[in-house]
């Protein structure tokens, strides 16, 4: 009788825990947690500790050096000047394309494949393409010079514009796929109901689709911004790494792997992480002001 009562208590306890989502299926999270600790938490904490062990001076010497040096401090502004426009352009450009391709039409698979193809190209191949197309001897300049529009080639690579173009090419597929997934999550019957009430396409988009889509666009912007803010190979290959595209990741690389000052490199990486998290936090806080109901607005 005692054993039976104990089994009933255990069963009741398991039932109460299961109602709170605590059961053996939580073990499925274990591989992910191990991965997170081994590949993110430990390197992050190690880098954070290393940043407070400068080669000279007190624990905050690296941070003081970074923010007191105009050349280093300017990398923050340069990186924002590339990351924010690239993320905005990718998100805004993805909306009309996703709106058109969310419905079935002839050639949809081919067009969708072409839109996401730049993901497979990689940064180096994209840079080679940009140099071949937009470089001083590229196709675009040859064409414009040939028809007499220009007297001398446009400078579209090895500067700000080359890096921005690379970020847009490589970042657009991610923004497009995310926006498309959010759009397909919006109940189409809402737009049909608005149409039956006489709303045209613009009013349906402005007052039905867009309010439900904005929370998802905020997430898309965050991911696009993080990708653009951490730009490194594009700034080297099609930018001016010591001038107009001297971004913060390049300075972290120079500090760690050219001057072998790993502590300074870690400090710059920490500054970079804090800036990205600050922007993401601001956008997510702004996102909470929008509708997040069960119908649409996923993300």
Quick description:
The chain is an all-alpha fold and 299 residues long. The protein has helices at residues 2-19, 30-51, 61-68, 70-101, 108-116, 118-134, 139-146, 160-184, 188-196, 201-229, 233-237, 248-258, 262-287.
Written description of the protein model:
- Helix 4 crosses helix 8, helix 4 runs antiparallel to helix 10 and helix 9 packs antiparallel against helix 10 (about 200-230).
- The longest helix has about 30 residues, at about 70-100.
- With about 300 residues, this protein is mainly alpha-helical.
- It is flat, with a radius of gyration of 25 Å.
- About 75% of the residues lie in helices and about 0% in strands.
- The protein has helices at about 1-20, 30-50, 60-70, 70-100, 110-115, 120-135, 140-145, 160-185, 190-195, 200-230, 235, 250-260, 260-285.
Which short descriptors sum up this protein?
299 residues, single chain, mainly alpha, 13 helices
Structural class: mainly alpha
Which spans have pLDDT < 50 for at least 5 consecutive residues? none
Biggest beta sheet attributes: none
Percent strand = under 5%
From the spread of the alpha carbons, the general shape counts as flat
Specify Rg, calculated over alpha carbons: 25 Å
* Number of helical regions: 13
Order of helices and strands: HHHHHHHHHHHHH
Q: How many angstroms separate the termini?
A: 52 Å
Helix content: over 70%
Quaternary form: single chain
Beta strand count: 0
**Average residue pLDDT:** 88
